[in-house]
Amino acid sequence: MKTQLTLAATALLLGTAMTPALAQEKIKLGVIVTLSGPAAALGQQVRDGFALAVKDLGSKMGGRDVEVVVVDDELKPDAAVTKVKGLLERDKVDFVIGPIFSNILQAIHRPVTESKTFLISPNAGPSTFAGKDCNPFFYVTSYQNDQVHEILGKVAQDRGYKRMYLMVPNYQAGKDSVAGFKLDYKGEIVEESYMPLNTLDFQPELSKISSQKPDALFTFMPGGLGVNLVKQYRQAGLADSIPVLSAFTVDESTLPAQQDAAVGMFGGANWAPNLDNPQNKKFVASYEAAYNVVPGTYAFQAYDAAMLIDSAVKAVKGDLSNKDAVQAALKKADFTSLRGTFKFNANGYPIQDFYLTKVAKRPDGKFQTEIVQKVFENYGDRYAKDCKAAN
Hints:
Layout: E1 2-7, H1 20-24, E2 27-33, H2 40-56, E3 60-61, E4 64-72, H3 77-90, E5 95-97, H4 102-114, E6 118-121, E7 138-140, H5 145-158, E8 163-169, H6 172-184, E9 188-195, H7 203-212, E10 216-220, H8 224-235, E11 244-247, H9 255-258, E12 266-269, H10 278-291, H11 297-315, H12 323-332, E13 343-344, E14 350-361, E15 367-379
Parallel strand pairs: 2-4, 2-5, 5-6, 6-7, 8-9, 8-10, 10-11, 11-12
Antiparallel strand pairs: 1-4, 3-4, 12-14, 13-14, 14-15
Helix pairs in contact: 2-11, 3-4, 5-6, 11-12
């Protein structure tokens, strides 16, 4: 599956020093996300958030027209490699934006970075590339995977939960989530369950939770996994007796399907739709007007990814031939993030604030996450100290 979006036409130089030939060339941006299967809603948010940013930029970056090519990674590493090679070799993109899932990132990271093309992740941020294997061609506008889970481990510890049940998918991001949760949580873990990525029926696990009676459930179940889990958890009568601390399980990409079943469940995040700053209020209103849904973290992080790229293109006056200059411009992150405070750590992952959120039903009947409290401020990941890249 491939969708190509050509954004903009005739451009002015806007005072840049580009040659006429360069001015006529479009900047090509390749977006690779999951657009099919149970996790399609996540990819749609990235695609739409990125498209909104490009529209807000007037379909130009640094005086040059922009062309966006969107491909579906199908949530299959082999397919993702084939698709990303098409972006690099056939479409000759200047930047690759994506993906959603860490196993897909691990598959495409090498072909993209070895081609000396900048890879901007609007979501996946595994530990793999945050430490000694960091790369000057890789930047993340979301978080390091552990961090959101660290919020929930700290909250569980601070709230005095003595017995926790952990349930996550059996892939790298799931393992990172458990590592993150355990960083601050020092109580007893009664069960640590790793579920297949294609799990639809959670009843066996819910029966175990019911019998073991933990103080709370920590879970990371993105996309369709989270939709099924939350509905089944509520139907099993567990939601009112065993609190849910979740990461990417109840968010704006899943709430339209979960609806009332998710109300009152907690999450960890670097942002929420009700975050109070002018740029975020404008973004949320524009996104809802354009797509008639509440934006989630995937959409806002993709919007920021586009603005990051724009800041770098402007800094080099549209000339992307000097990779060192583009790298330096990306690292500066000279743009206004929707989350407010934002800068890059040495490894190309963000330093930012993190929050505990809770699902609420708005007066208009839509569902969204809302900030309960700030848990970490200007928080960087624990792997950056091992990064040796000149990044």
